């Protein structure tokens, strides 16, 4: 019997860190061809849900989409901050009303995800773009679990966006050709998913926030690849992951002081949130993206589209290209988020799907 892989080999690990270092050192030169901000076409006919828009990359994505005319739904856990941002954006546009609304979504609660999706789907409106941007990297913190019992990085960065993407399929098919965009990270290159211990509770591997973050980002690429393949071309829904680059945002707020100081010393290398928003905005609006994604559905190529910080299609890590592990991640994820194995097919056919979450009365 072939022994199951238990971790990245040290050469793979070294190569992974080389990718991360290369991204940090050369992201600015590699993106010198891009405008900042990215020029967007008029988006008056587009409805976009963006998660985590109260700071960093998500705030920039939401603002720029709205300023280009899109109807933007800010899916956030802090409604007050989101409403204040809308006021700021509108006043900087000399009182012109932007088409932005705020809806509550806490990714640390799968009940909240189901509630959000049900509320949105009940409108029976088309959804053209879902951007799963919200994420956490609680650097240096001890292992924490959500009230659903999942390691917090796994839940916020992978499980909750996966549940949201699947449950919003009825609206995304109404909006086809539509796009699910996951703001991923080059850090997935140093991730490894142990499908028998996705929650990192067995004690086989010592937990660290780096392990939690990188594994959650790799799991997201793997799940997205299977989701993309399972959505028939006729559904008109495409799934992709993007790397924003290495960006100076609130993600650094939990860093030790000394690392925060180092962050300030290397401003040349780090992207601003506006620069970091370009790959997601490109994925959301470039007219050639649907055709490219559809070509990947019919290809033998095992992964969904992965768009680099320079707005080019690129390859995710070798580990992300493992078909066997990706299917295991798919199955385990559906189990964890309380969906049946045929959830996607049923939703595409317009049938109902029962989720274990979302039934609790608080
Ligand atoms: N910065 C980088 O260098 C970098 C590199 C690669 C990938 N990324 C990815 O880019 C994405 C955006 O990160 P960022 O750098 O812009 O970080 P950020 O400034 O910390 O923004 C994160 C956003 O996610 C929201 N969020 C966190 N937990 C949430 C929850 N439980 N429910 C709902 N929303 C939640 C935050 O809301 P609150 O304001 O309520 O906390 C905030 O709006 C993340 O997925 C991150 O992994 C970032």
Automatic annotation (TrEMBL):
<dbReference type="InterPro" id="IPR002347">
    <property type="entry name" value="SDR_fam"/>
</dbReference>
<dbReference type="Pfam" id="PF00106">
    <property type="entry name" value="adh_short"/>
</dbReference>
<dbReference type="InterPro" id="IPR036291">
    <property type="entry name" value="NAD(P)-bd_dom_sf"/>
</dbReference>
<dbReference type="GO" id="GO:0016491">
    <property type="term" value="F:oxidoreductase activity"/>
</dbReference>
<comment type="similarity">
    <text>Belongs to the short-chain dehydrogenases/reductases (SDR) family.</text>
</comment>
<keyword id="KW-1133">Transmembrane helix</keyword>
<protein>
    <recommendedName>
        <fullName>Retinol dehydrogenase 11-like</fullName>
    </recommendedName>
</protein>
<keyword id="KW-0472">Membrane</keyword>
<keyword id="KW-0560">Oxidoreductase</keyword>
<keyword id="KW-0812">Transmembrane</keyword>
<feature type="transmembrane region" description="Helical">
    <location>
        <begin position="7"/>
        <end position="26"/>
    </location>
</feature>
């Amino acid at each position: 019997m072939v022994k199951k892989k238990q971790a990245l080999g040290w050469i793979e690990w070294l190569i992974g860190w080389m990718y991360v270092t290369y991204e940090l050192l050369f992201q600015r030169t590699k993106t010198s061809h891009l405008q900042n901000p990215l020029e967007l076409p008029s988006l008056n006919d587009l409805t976009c849900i963006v998660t985590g828009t109260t700071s960093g990359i998500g705030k920039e994505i939401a603002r720029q989409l709205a300023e280009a005319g899109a109807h933007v739904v800010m899916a956030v856990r802090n409604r007050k901050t989101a409403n204040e941002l809308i006021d700021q954006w509108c006043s900087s546009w000399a009182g012109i009303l932007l088409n932005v609304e705020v809806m509550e979504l806490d990714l640390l609660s799968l009940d909240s995800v189901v509630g959000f999706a049900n509320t949105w789907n009940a409108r029976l409106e088309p959804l053209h773009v879902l951007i799963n941007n919200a994420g956490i990297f609680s650097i240096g913190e001890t292992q924490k679990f959500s009230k659903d019992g999942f390691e917090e990085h796994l839940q916020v960065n992978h499980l909750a966006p996966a549940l949201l993407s699947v449950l919003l399929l009825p609206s995304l098919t109404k909006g086809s050709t539509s796009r699910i965009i996951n703001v991923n990270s080059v850090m997935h290159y140093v991730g490894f998913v142990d499908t028998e211990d996705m929650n990192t509770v067995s004690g086989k591997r010592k937990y660290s926030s780096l392990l939690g973050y990188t594994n959650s980002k790799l799991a997201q690429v793997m799940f997205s690849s299977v989701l993309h393949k399972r959505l028939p071309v006729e559904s008109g829904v495409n799934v992709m992951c993007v790397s924003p680059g290495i960006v100076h945002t609130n993600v650094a707020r939990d860093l030790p002081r000394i690392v925060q100081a180092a962050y300030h010393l290397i401003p040349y290398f780090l992207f601003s949130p506006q620069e970091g928003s370009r790959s997601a905005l490109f994925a959301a609006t470039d007219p050639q993206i649907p055709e490219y994604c559809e070509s990947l559905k019919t290809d033998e190529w095992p992964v969904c589209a992965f768009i680099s910080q320079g707005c080019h299609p690129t390859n995710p890590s070798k580990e992300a290209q493992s078909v066997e592990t990706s299917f295991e991640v798919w199955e385990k994820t559906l189990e964890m988020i309380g969906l049946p194995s045929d959830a996607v097919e049923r939703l595409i056919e317009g049938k109902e799907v029962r989720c274990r979450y979302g039934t609790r009365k608080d």
